[in-house]
Amino acid sequence: MRRLAIPLALMLSVGALGSPAQATDKVTRTAECQGDWLPGTPTANDVMKGEISLVGLPAYKLGKDIKWAASPFKNRSWEFVFQSLRWMGTLVVEYENTGERQYLDRATDIAKDWVASNRYGAKGTPSYVWKDHPVSLRTQPLLCLSRHVNAGWLKESLAAHAKLLSNPRLYKKGHNHGIDQDIALMGIGCRYARKDWANLASRRLTGTVKLDVDAQGALMEQAPRYAVYVYGRLQVAMTNMKACGRKVPGEISRRAEALKDFIAHSTLPNGYMVPIGDGSAETEPKMETGTPKQKVKTYRAGYVFGRTKWGEPDSAYYSIRYGPGMKFHGHEDHLGVTYYAQGRDILMDGGFHSYEKSSYRYWTLSPEAHNVPTVVGARFRPRTSSKLIKSSYGDDRQAFKLTDKAYGVSRTRSVLVNHGEDLMAVLDTASGGKKVSSIWRFAPSFKVVSNGGGKVVLADGKFKVTLLQYSASCGRTGGQKVERGGKLGWVSPTYLSKQPASVVKSPAAKSLLTIIVPGTDSPKVSCSGGKVKVDGVSFSTRLL
């Protein structure tokens, strides 16, 4: 068995912690254990019974001798969380809260067995055990345990963790994983008075935050729900810095504060975050963001978020995507839109299913899983950036124009959203005489009740929504196809879920003007001379 070679200079100093505390009615609570890092499941009692439920999957029986290479669900997220040992940490916290020695003894046994069975680089140790994120997340429960257990094997393991955390080749700069690495390294450095580690963590963190959160407060990882995670981790990082006697750099505190506005703007009127990129529709921020001054916000990172009013669940809301090419937690969703009106989701993205390497996961990343225009007969070019080239803001109406060359020619989309009399209108074109087609994915509860003559009506019980399509010259465009299931008709609103959804695919045309009217199956619509009128709302076929 090959062990990680750790120079004496890197070994942690042995503090005078003494032996593990005996059972007592009162145990000192420590900052390392009393944080918000613990998972919701499993509980300490679950772990004591030997059953742990991770990432929402069924309970797994640990057994007396834990099989550390276990992967009962063949799920990467489960494996990573299992190896993080945070579930072990619940026992140490319970020991601090109750003074019952049985919890500490079991936690010590689990951690000691893990260390003996998972030496870095040893034969039989799965490679993912020592990936950057499990290493950083595992540091917290091990540090927590170190407050009550003074043992050479534990200090040696934390030294091995610190060596990897400080390795520049393994550092995930500009990513939430990098933030977690810095928190972990600073934790070990401060715990054992290693200023070199703490200094490195502090220095790296500032650079990572500047890359991960831009000056407007937008998260650059291309999935808004991760902004909540990053905000929470930055609070931990700043708290730990202060506890370590360090000054928090102003750039970190300013960008953390700006994140709150971004989270507020990317939250739907129903209180859940818009599921863009690797984001679940069940993500609820559960934090105080305050109410931004603006109802519409354009972020250079590639987002437009708009709403009718703040604080009203029935108000309308929309999102539009553009900006840098796909990276990190993003999808190929550029020029895509989502739409929420009259208290319900109307248009949705394909959503986030999981991080599993499956054909369905890769499909959820593709343009076909989003409400986007495609250029007929042209090859899609992944990771292409797009631009917002024109915008118009009004209290009751906003309009935007975006373009890119994701299909080799200029693909252009204009979007108009009208409030009060709710509707969304979208004009799609391509250069070089190319034809475009568009995809419209409705919330799973909507089913098609009629389709003909360029008009598709969908219903969710008594609530109706109408989709109409014209050319830019006002000719009605018929021939829409609807899929529910099949290749296109799916949505994953929550982790590991897959639901059939009604998807309307337009015919190919040189220009496509799509109008979405929520709340009715019979809007009064006229289109002539480059002007459109929908139930009294008028606008140009060019939109802006």
From TrEMBL:
Heparinase II/III-like C-terminal domain residues: 324-502
Location in the cell: Periplasm
Record bears the keyword Signal: yes
Pfam families per the UniProt record, alphabetical: Hepar_II_III_C (PF07940), Hepar_II_III_N (PF16889)
Lyase keyword on record: yes
GO CC annotation: periplasmic space
A molecular function (GO) term: lyase activity
Protein name per its UniProtKB record: Heparinase II/III-like protein
Organism, as annotated: Nonomuraea fuscirosea
